[in-house]
Automatic annotation (TrEMBL):
Keywords for the protein's UniProt record, in alphabetical order: Aminotransferase, Cytoplasm, Lyase, Pyridoxal phosphate, Transferase
Subunit organization: Homodimer.
Name listed for the protein in its UniProt record: Kynurenine--oxoglutarate transaminase 1
Any one Gene Ontology molecular-function term assigned to this protein's record: pyridoxal phosphate binding
Annotated catalysed reactions: 3-phenylpyruvate + L-glutamine = 2-oxoglutaramate + L-phenylalanine; an S-substituted L-cysteine + H2O = a thiol + pyruvate + NH4(+); L-kynurenine + 2-oxoglutarate = kynurenate + L-glutamate + H2O
One annotated Gene Ontology cellular component of this protein: cytosol
Highest taxon listed in the record's lineage: Eukaryota
């Protein structure tokens, strides 16, 4: 008998170890796959030059690193402890001052600003705080891919509206400005079920900087249909050729219905710090605070303190030539032009971006190197990008990543490169492209 009992309990423990009940919460269904996990791994395994994921390979500015060093060597030891949940006081104070000036209104640091773990968590708080089962959220394509999973995880339904490419005049390079909203199509997506629209200007992946007229159209529709605007402006300082970044929250009727999202990662070339923020009216931010206090509580105190010092410097230098917000886009514009030239020279037609870290290029002329397989379930650009990193050592991200499943195959002849890279990295990319071109002409 004891032997039978022992065998029974062994069987039971084996059975229990496996668990037969479903463990995954239903809200995760359809969001398990993540392109970044796959492409980051491919780049780490095969690439010699990584222009895939969006992060600079050059250091953040000295003033930011020095601020952190000062905190560590001379700062209060209390900076290693918890701080205020919704944002370290010196950081929310300077953010309120800075964005108050930009938006032309007085901001209360305690109620109009909330600090988050990167812009990612700001977005997560927004979708969790505002989106219910049955709500629709309008997403402009191409879009930063996490919007889709975050809307779904909150129980909402994303409704997509793609920017349309207007072919440029013969001989001219394509520009991100050639990708435009169809006003009638956009209007047709608004309904009683629409809770919010996500705007991302400057846009990742195209680098499009939305013009005033386009923003006014979005604003008009938001007001007409009583819809929220979640405005992801993480690339706000990165515009080129004098393009103006317009904050939709500054347009008529929009402050009360807009949450503006920013990132110190992009602002100060320090993506690993994961400091982000939201700016908006208290009646919206109060719900973000509820999500935030019940999830992460707050982000690293020392990082927030150093970012506050960085903003303090920028506040004093605002509009002056020494400002990082003036110098950084200048440098990035040169890097953009360098990559535009490299790609154009080999026939990988670039879409010249007006902003961001990114440049999208047309790979149609490279189809002969890696022929399409009709009927494949994976979009061509995705297979091309995988082939390219494995065979040429150059990592990029397929544009179809930034489209919903139904539209992916309509936009599968482009790949996205990140040009926020050291001179040497961009030169190494150029060398790969030149060698590739030579092999094409002399196979
Ligand atoms: N929004 C957009 C459009 C982005 O490109 C990124 C980062 N790639 C984020 C949000 C997330 O920013 P953070 O790193 O501050 O979380």
């Amino acid at each position: 008998l004891p032997l039978v009992k022992a065998a029974d309990s062994l069987l039971l423990s084996l059975f229990q170890a496996k668990m037969s009940r479903p463990v995954q919460a239903r809200r995760l269904e359809g969001t398990e796959e993540n392109v970044w996990v796959e492409f980051v791994k491919l780049a780490a395994t095969y690439s010699t030059v990584n222009l895939g994921q969006g992060f600079p390979d050059f250091p953040p500015p000295d003033f930011l690193k020095e601020a952190l060093e000062r905190i560590l060597s001379k700062g209060s030891h209390m900076l290693h402890q918890y701080t205020r949940a919704f944002g370290h006081p010196p950081l929310v104070k300077i953010l309120a001052q800075f964005f108050g000036k930009l938006l032309g209104r007085e901001l209360d640091p305690m109620t109009n600003v909330m600090v988050t773990v990167g812009a990612y968590q700001a977005l997560f708080c927004c979708f969790q705080a505002f989106v219910d089962e049955g709500d629709e959220v309008i997403v402009i394509e191409p879009f930063f891919d996490c919007y889709e999973s975050m809307v779904k995880m909150a129980g909402g339904t994303p409704v997509y509206v793609p920017l349309k490419l207007k072919a440029p005049k013969d001989g001219k390079l394509m520009s991100s400005a050639d990708w435009q909203l169809d006003p009638a199509e956009l209007a047709s997506k608004f309904s009683k079920r629409t809770k919010a629209i996500v705007l991302n200007s400057p846009n990742n992946p195209l680098g499009k900087v939305f013009r005033r007229q386009e923003l006014e159209l979005i604003a008009e529709l938001c007001v007409k249909h009583d819809v929220l605007c979640l405005s992801d402006e993480v690339y706000e300082w990165l515009t080129y050729d004098g393009k103006e970044h317009i904050r939709i929250a500054s347009l008529q009727g929009m402050w009360d219905r807009t949450v503006t999202i920013g990132s110190a990662g992009k602002t100060f070339s320090a993506t690993g710090w994961k400091v982000g923020w939201t700016v908006g009216p208290n009646h919206l931010l109060q719900h973000l605070r509820t999500v935030h206090q019940n999830s992460v509580y707050h982000c690293a105190t020392i990082a927030q303190d150093a970012v506050a010092q960085g903003f303090q410097r920028e506040f004093e230098l605002y509009g002056k030539p020494d400002s990082y917000f003036i110098q950084m886009p200048k440098e990035l514009q040169q890097k953009r032009d360098q990559l535009v030239q490299s790609l154009n020279a080999v026939g990988m037609k670039p879409i010249v971006p007006e902003g961001t870290y990114f440049l999208v290029a047309d790979i149609s002329e490279f189809k002969s190197d890696f022929p399409d397989v009709p009927g494949s379930s994976e979009p061509y650009d995705s297979r091309f990008a995988k082939w390219m990193v494995k065979n040429k050592g150059l990592a990029a991200i397929p544009l179809s990543t930034f489209y919903c499943a139904a539209h992916k195959n309509n936009y599968s002849q482009f790949i996205r490169f990140c040009f926020a890279k050291e001179e040497a990295t961009l030169k190494a990319a150029n060398d790969i492209l030149q060698k590739w071109k030579r092999e094409k002409t002399n196979p």
